[in-house]
Predict the structure.
Amino acid sequence: MKMSFRWYGTGNDSISLSQIKQIPGVTEIVWALHEKQPGEIWEKKEIAKVKSELDEYGFGMSVVESVNVHDDIKTAGKNRDLYIENYKQTLKNLAEFGVKVVCYNFMPVFDWTRTDLFHPLPDGSTALFYEKSKIRQDPAEMAEYILKETKGYTMPGWEPERLANLKQLFELYKDVDKEKLWANLKYFLEAIMPTCRECDIKMAIHPDDPPWDIFGLPRLLVDEAAVGRFLSMVDDPYNCLTLCSGSLGSNPENNVAEIVRKYCGRIAFAHIRNVKHFENGDFSETSHRDCDGDVGILDIIKAYHDGGFDGYIRPDHGRHIWNEKCRPGYGLYDRALGIMYILGAWDMLDKQEGRI
Ligand code: DNO
């Protein structure tokens, strides 16, 4: 397992590389060119700039999160082949800098969705929260609220330029039902797999967050059956998963540890996030400690360990603690605590097996 930390880049993150360097065990930075619009080619000189920043601290740049997929690819729009060619060129450029895993998602219109970005928790901290009843309301109203609450940071998946055209975006997806979306995903993956093989880059899809349809839009990667369908639909070792425990785990029916056990060999990137469920269907994100949430963090870590997981892992969203001013879910302190929790459990398992 290789421990990583998501960083949004110089001038785009409240956290510095020198701070991350002091978190024990982190060897990789999960990065992206956040100013790029879906469909644009990532140029070598832009990638080289990030590499030189990371080199200064001895961090690897093996994982990109995300190279976003253009809506024409998701909807089989008229320029999909052009954007697929651009995607392949981006993969080739990334491969030259040692990138091994590209995380992406295939969610229509919205990426991850929450109704409150700074919800108060009983311990005085705040965390991301999902209130089911709010989702039935107007999506435009919600997009406006989310953008206002990002406190000046850009939120991946919630690019103001895209969301300004929300009506047109919904229009694009009006004839795209679940089966069409599956077919468009298959078309995309089959087109890029030869490039992935040639470049030795694994494509790692992020599950839908939350794992159910919202605002009438179809969502695909929602449970174990869907994960199985996805992996057999394009049965290629380069077609992999970003297994996000908090996304799948938002549905209490999903047993995330079981999914990890079943598909460990096809998980290229692990997101460890904890979530607490409420009876009315709401959920709150919590600390990474197993007993603070319901997804079974320790069972999940054990499942990775038993499966000999040697991919990349990162603590996912944390709470906002100690008055930290940071991007929602992506502060320094609680994610650093999360890393120590994950490494503590992992080291103990290694020790029990005489590996350390
Ligand atoms: C949220 C993240 C997602 C993820 C994308 C991958 O915090 O987990 O935005 O990066 O869905 O494309």
User: Anything to note?
Assistant: The CA atoms of residues 287 and 318 lie 6 Å apart.
